[in-house]
UniProtKB/TrEMBL annotation:
Keyword Transferase attached: yes
Any one of the GO BP annotations: methylation
InterPro entries per record: Methyltranfer_dom, METTL25
Superkingdom: Eukaryota
Keywords: Methyltransferase, Transferase
Molecular-function GO terms, alphabetical: methyltransferase activity
Stretches the record annotates as Disordered: 207-241
Domain Methyltransferase: from-to ranges: 141-337
Name of the protein this chain belongs to: Methyltransferase domain-containing protein
Keyword DNA damage: no
Species of origin: Dichomitus squalens
Pfam families: Methyltransf_32
Length: 513
């Protein structure tokens, strides 16, 4: 572990230097909306790409593939994939080529099955991808994640001898309990499903009732799913015998302290239930899991894990101890500032997947248009607010309607349907209607402004995986330091296929070494 920790510190240092470069740091100092203002003055660090981004590029007949942001994407994709660059990317400024080269070098590999730091999983082979299975009530992306998560947990519990007797799992941020139910029904595990939302709990209850009803009349689809049970699940069933698992759903505010308290209460209840019939272990082994532990929930789970481990190895009396954890984080932009200083800088997009197909490229075009067109509104909205302000000064005694208009101008635009972005005129009309603005037609700003916004956003997306690597490696180093001298190890395991839509695909896995 010492060698791994030294290596990760070196990587963190390199990433820190990269993110501190003025060209990179200024990408997050400004928002794309700032570029939509005619008064915007680009920082001097952007001089090497500003004119190029706003210039005219030669396009192939009938295509738009030569927009500057797409040239960046194609160059980036060639670096990620190792393929030769297209001749058309030769116009990409050297300063941006260098940035992209460094970003590709510093980001973590995201191929499914890759494990950090060794490149291979020390636990066992990852489960086969079963994303083709249709699971009731789930999108293909969600089904892929649930099946992969449960499959990985099966192998972890079945082939780690020190986890062979573990049959208690805490699912943190359980949502509608898709993973919890599969662990209960497939592996006969006892699961505490924790979530903060009563709405999610009611949804989970409906799903559970529906599943019980379907058991009497299984569909062909469910028969297929049952027939694909893995050898790992068979091993678990054989080891645990015929006893059925259970699921307890609890809604509570979740942080490190409440997670420990909720687990305390649940384990004590479980021990009371079984004490009359079976021998109860002095300390119940527990596994923490979190599929998409949003924002700071990941760090809260880790803090609870470390706290409970310390309590379990001290002289204090405790009824349980965590023996492992599998946590997939997400929504890094929602992290508390004390959990990471760069928490607000991560772009959620996965540009390495944008050229995968015409459909994914079309989705990327639409997403880019949404960012750019929202930014292009800045001057129009600012003019509206200025006009309203002048009217207020001239009619303080009778400003009821004007005050309402002023409030409307400051509303969030919110989410708009994709069809709204078919053309600028439709977009402008919908914005005026939604914000209740009685204005003349809005002309579309010059194309060079839109192109610069697109390039700036593309660069933020390219740097995003480096920021995510910074966060993941920081957590890896922290856990490694805390586990030093204990019989535990930590790895970063790529559980999901990003091509399935699972952008956040890295699990923090803590297990006996």
């Amino acid at each position: 572990m010492a060698d791994s920790l030294a290596s990760v510190i070196d990587q963190l240092t390199s990433i820190s230097h990269f993110l501190s470069q003025p060209l990179v740091s200024t990408l997050f100092h400004y928002h794309p909306n700032n570029l939509g203002q005619s008064s915007f003055d680009p920082p001097p660090e952007w001089e090497g790409w500003w004119d190029w981004a706003g210039g005219e590029c030669e396009a192939e007949v009938g295509t738009e593939l030569d927009d500057p942001w797409l040239l960046l994407l194609k160059y980036y994709n060639s670096r990620v994939s190792g393929h030769e660059c297209s001749d058309k990317t030769s116009s990409v400024p050297p300063i941006l080529r260098s940035l992209i080269n460094d970003a590709c070098r510093l980001a973590l590999p995201r191929d499914i099955g890759h494990v950090y730091p060794d490149g291979r999983c020390s636990i066992t082979q990852l489960p086969n991808d079963l994303k083709s299975q249709a699971l009731p009530g789930m999108s293909p992306k969600k089904a892929h994640e649930v099946v992969q998560m449960v499959g990985f947990l099966e192998t972890l519990l079945s082939f780690q001898s020190s986890l062979g007797s573990l049959n208690h799992v805490v699912d943190i941020g359980a949502g509608q309990a898709y993973v919890s139910r599969m662990l209960r029904d497939r592996l006969n595990l006892h699961v505490l499903a924790l979530d903060w939302s009563e709405v999610q709990k009611r949804g989970a209850s409906r799903k559970d009732a529906s599943k019980i009803a379907r058991r009497a009349r299984p569909t062909q689809r469910e028969v297929v799913n049952a027939d694909t049970a893995s050898p790992a699940s068979d091993t678990r069933r054989t080891a645990l015998g015929p006893k059925a698992g259970s699921m307890t759903y609890v809604t509570t505010r979740i942080d490190a302290d409440s997670l420990v308290s909720a687990t305390d209460a649940w384990v004590e209840d479980r021990q009371a239930v079984i004490s009359n019939n079976d021998a109860t272990p002095e300390v119940t082994p527990v596994l923490f899991i979190g599929l998409h532990a949003c924002g700071s929930l990941t760090t809260d789970i880790i803090r609870a894990f470390l706290s409970a481990r310390r309590a379990g190895t001290s002289l204090r009396s405790t009824s349980w101890m965590p023996h492992g954890a599998v946590i997939v984080g997400c929504c890094y932009n929602l992290m508390r500032s004390e959990d990471f200083p760069l928490s607000r800088t991560l772009a959620a997009q996965v540009p390495s997947q944008w050229l995968r197909s015409q459909q994914s490229l079309g989705s990327a075009r639409l997403a880019m248009r949404k960012i750019a067109w929202r930014a292009l509104l800045e001057d129009h909205l600012q003019e509206t607010q200025d006009d309203v302000g002048h009217e207020r000064l001239g009619s303080e005694a009778n400003d009821g309607g004007t005050a309402e208009m002023h409030r409307n101008c400051r509303k969030r635009l919110g989410r708009l349907n994709d069809q709204v972005f078919a053309n600028w005129e439709t977009f402008a009309d919908v914005v005026r209607t939604k914000l209740h603005l009685q204005l003349a037609d809005w002309s579309r700003p010059p194309s060079r402004v839109e192109k610069r916004i697109e390039v700036m956003h593309m660069l933020r997306c390219i740097v995003g995986p480096v920021v995510e690597a910074y966060i993941l490696l920081d957590r890896f180093a922290w856990i490694s330091e805390e586990l030093k001298g204990t019989p535990m190890a930590v790895e970063l395991v790529n559980l999901f296929d990003q091509a399935s839509g699972s952008g956040r695909n890295v699990a923090i896995v803590i297990h006996p070494s």
